[in-house]
């Protein structure tokens, strides 16, 4: 191998597989005191749901005890939980919001 060949040799780079971050479901939990309109407002403001989607999720919360507001990476989910809980507290509503890991495939 000549000096010129050494200068033009190429390196083989290894590809490492990156895993997608674990996703978390943000759930709104039913209570007997938080107004349905407030739940819809929260879904529209913090989760950017359309009016009809927000109404359907609110009804799931009301009838099934919980509804999925969205699925996000952990840090985003935790931020949304904190924002909604803070807003609910400021308004005097006992709305509970939790983030839980999405089931693995």
UniProtKB/TrEMBL annotation:
UniProt keyword Ribonucleoprotein present: no
Any GO BP annotation: proteolysis
Keywords: Hydrolase, Protease
Hydrolase is among the record's keywords: yes
Ranges for domain Adaptor protein ClpS core: 20-97
GO MF entries: peptidase activity
Pfam families linked: ClpS
Subunit structure: Binds to the N-terminal domain of the chaperone ClpA.
Stated family: Belongs to the ClpS family.
NCBIfam families: PRK00033.1-5
Function: Involved in the modulation of the specificity of the ClpAP-mediated ATP-dependent protein degradation.
The protein's name: ATP-dependent Clp protease adapter protein ClpS
Taxonomic path: Bacteria, Thermotogati, Deinococcota, Deinococci, Deinococcales
